[in-house]
Amino acid sequence: MQTFEVLAEPRRRTILDLLRDGERSVGELVDELALSQPAVSKHLRVLREAGLVTVRVAAQRRCYALRPAPLAEVDAWLAPYRAFWSDRLDALERRLDETS
């Protein structure tokens, strides 16, 4: 599954947002997301297979951490759109300055 397909699911994006703050166990993610443990585990499996998260086994717990490298693909795709909006906003600012 490609990175974009994985990120299309809102709950997976929420999981990544939570992992931005640091490693979390499956139980912690279940509590934060108010989803069942099997549902969270399924999303984590998809994220792990896409290379977006890593897992570490600590005794009886599985702890997940964000692996941001694959997000570079998304960032590269978004770069021209950021430039597009930046140019548009600069043009709007100039226009507003002219009319005031």
From TrEMBL:
<dbReference type="InterPro" id="IPR036388">
    <property type="entry name" value="WH-like_DNA-bd_sf"/>
</dbReference>
<dbReference type="InterPro" id="IPR001845">
    <property type="entry name" value="HTH_ArsR_DNA-bd_dom"/>
</dbReference>
<dbReference type="GO" id="GO:0003700">
    <property type="term" value="F:DNA-binding transcription factor activity"/>
</dbReference>
<keyword id="KW-0804">Transcription</keyword>
<dbReference type="InterPro" id="IPR051081">
    <property type="entry name" value="HTH_MetalResp_TranReg"/>
</dbReference>
<protein>
    <submittedName>
        <fullName>Metalloregulator ArsR/SmtB family transcription factor</fullName>
    </submittedName>
</protein>
<dbReference type="InterPro" id="IPR011991">
    <property type="entry name" value="ArsR-like_HTH"/>
</dbReference>
<dbReference type="Pfam" id="PF01022">
    <property type="entry name" value="HTH_5"/>
</dbReference>
<dbReference type="GO" id="GO:0003677">
    <property type="term" value="F:DNA binding"/>
</dbReference>
<feature type="domain" description="HTH arsR-type">
    <location>
        <begin position="1"/>
        <end position="86"/>
    </location>
</feature>
<dbReference type="InterPro" id="IPR036390">
    <property type="entry name" value="WH_DNA-bd_sf"/>
</dbReference>
<keyword id="KW-0805">Transcription regulation</keyword>
<keyword id="KW-0238">DNA-binding</keyword>
